[in-house]
Amino acid sequence: MEIKIRDEYIKLGQALKLAGVVEDGVEAKYAVQDGKVKVNGEVDERRGRKVYEGDVISFRGEEIRVVR
Length: 68
Description:
Helix content is 25%, strand content 35%. It is built from two helices and seven strands, in the order E-E-H-H-E-E-E-E-E. The strands form two sheets. The chain has a five-stranded mixed sheet with strand order 1-7-6-3-4, covered by helices on one side. A two-stranded antiparallel sheet has the order 2-5. Strand 6 and strand 7 form a beta hairpin. The protein is globular. The relative contact order is 0.31. The mean pLDDT is 96.
């Protein structure tokens, strides 16, 4: 799956919402805090982490590639 961003980056929680893998920001917050989200193969527990074009987010068996 791919998500297209307009700006240089998008925050991790927003990316999860844009991809439709979480319902809202609260669900995104807990998924990230609980270590269920990986960015480029590494667990990241910062919901505000900036993800850029080319980054790959993994969550619940889905891979989400960030494109511009």
